[in-house]
Design brief:
Elements: H1 27-38, E1 48-51, H2 57-64, E2 70-74, H3 77-90, E3 96-100, H4 103-109, E4 114-119, H5 131-137, E5 141-151, E6 163-169, E7 172-178
Parallel strand pairs: 1-2, 1-4, 2-3, 4-5
Antiparallel strand pairs: 5-7, 6-7
Length: 193
């Protein structure tokens, strides 16, 4: 696992993932996604939620690029402890809120809103199709915010009313959903560049 850009660029971490129910996003896919995000977000000014956070791959990447408000959620204790130790090693504890919880319970009880939510659930999870509707029904995205859901080709969200775009990196797909803008209108696909 490698941090691609920012102040920790090139730092590598070696989680004992052989025994973990995780599937870290490949560097190739992560770099492609962050190229898209870089054209839309000022990382220093956004509030980020990393659901099914696993090894913390996405959380570190945001913090490395200047984000100071990242919430990481995962229920697997091994992952949570690894992320806690990595945050200490990087000295970024003040930027990273670590929550050990079931993601679906967290969504249902969360009272905060975020500019950007990333969800990278395990591919075999049966209720992946429910995730976008849950995020929107519990109003977790700020106006104009983005949800990015990582999934494989077994899922297709093009018919979802908040769907904006999909980026394909091999068998990894990032479906991008937009919250309504401040004006109460949906963001347009042209904003995903």
């Amino acid at each position: 696992m490698r941090i691609i850009s920012g102040k920790f660029k090139g730092r590598r971490f070696f989680p004992p993932a052989d025994n973990w129910p995780t599937r870290p996003t490949t560097d190739f896919a992560k770099e492609g996604l962050f190229n898209v995000l870089n054209n839309h977000f000022d990382f220093e000014d956004i509030k980020v939620l990393d659901l099914f956070g696993g090894t913390g791959n996405h959380s570190y990447e945001f913090i490395s690029r200047g984000c100071t408000d990242v919430t990481y959620v995962d229920k697997f204790n091994g992952c949570v402890e690894f992320v806690r130790k990595t945050a200490q090693a990087l000295q970024v504890e003040s930027c990273l809120r670590i929550v050990r919880a079931d993601v679906f319970r967290f969504i249902a009880t969360c009272r905060e809103q975020y500019d950007y939510i990333f969800a990278g659930p395990p591919y075999p999870l049966p209720n992946i199709p429910e995730i976008p509707d849950l995020i929107f029904s519990f109003d977790l995205l700020k106006p104009g915010g983005w949800l990015v859901l990582e999934h494989n080709p077994n899922h297709d969200f093009k018919g979802h009313p908040r769907f904006a775009d999909a980026r394909h990196y091999g068998k990894t797909i990032f479906s991008i959903f937009h919250a309504a803008s401040d004006a109460g209108e949906d963001a347009t696909e042209e904003e995903v560049a």
